[in-house]
Amino acid sequence: MKKTIRKVLVINSGSSSLKYQLFDMKNEERLAKGLVERIGAGGPANHAEALKQVVADLGNPTDIDAIGHRVLHGAEVFKDSAKVTKSVMTQLKKLVKFGPLHMPPNLGGIEACEKIFKGVPNVAVFDTAFHQTMPDCAAMYAIDPKYYKKMGIRKYGFHGTSHKFVTQAAAKFLKKPLSKVNLVTCHLGNGSSLAAIKNGQVVDTSMGLTPLAGMVMGTRCGDIDAAAILSIMEAEGKTPAEMDKMLNKASGLQGLTGVNGGDCRDICAKAAKGDKQCELALEMLAYRVAFYVGGYNTIIGGADAIIMSGGIGENSTEVRERIIKRLAGLGIKLDKAANKKSHGVVAVISTKDSKIPVVVLPTNEELMIAKDTVRVLG
Predict the structure, then answer these.
(1) pTM score
(2) Which of 58, 122, 194, 350 has a CA positioned 20 to 30 A from the CA of residue 242?
(3) Structural domains of the chain, ranges and CATH numbers in brackets
């Protein structure tokens, strides 16, 4: 008889931080949450030391039944969440090339848990897994197929755990079977991506081989002509590593405005005071979202709803208004009063006569990881 999985610890290991949440899955209640920062930079020496701090913060628990880990990339090897075994770990190490910044700490968190919580099962939940239903016409790049066969170069998509959570939540909210719900889900935050959901499954998403493609983001440029990258590299003598850093860490809203980290709240405040670059940045962001929403609405044959989620999607009335104004061609109309009072709660922010409802739906990636952990260990 299988043991009932009740208490699940969710771990999100970053390069210099470790976030955690503890859930009681009997009623999906969050019991604790926390963050350990500055790993390897004046704080804990490594992720194993960070995890010891987590154990101490939780009061040395002995009743944790399972641990779920956020893992950036499953490539095509992992099309669903997976219980971590020796063979799974061997496969995961081969995928580090797809995420050299994120994957090592992700795997370090798993290894630390295996040592500290001996005998407790670990489950890897992949950012890419929910997007594996994309057809080849959306997932493949128009380059020689040998690069896909040899190197796995194709679109994978990210934020899959968030898109999966809001898709399931939206189906319930709309009172539609998951297998029949059509959505455009917008995860808008410092990192942003959209997904086209047809009959409960992803048919396209805006991020690509890496999280760089698609939206204008906090520090990432999003979609850009590859020839522009080559021109800058040639003109300034930048190495691939330097160019990668510029596009991922010094572009997007930050690159356009000079606002550190590209914080949308600061940019909105400066735009309201007449800062032209901040105004342009917000218009570029809204334009890009509307562009994808329009395309995805066509691909799925008409959305049952447009879902706004993530830090910006859930809280920025200003950005939501700019986006929805650009969707008038789809018969979408903004309810200004509803939009203004909606912050981090489930709410319909479109008018009753809007052809497609726009729903603010807070995401909960950690709970989704916990639910997947329970499902996989079943």
Answers:
(1) 0.95
(2) 194
(3) 7-126 (3.30.420.40), 175-365 (3.30.420.40)
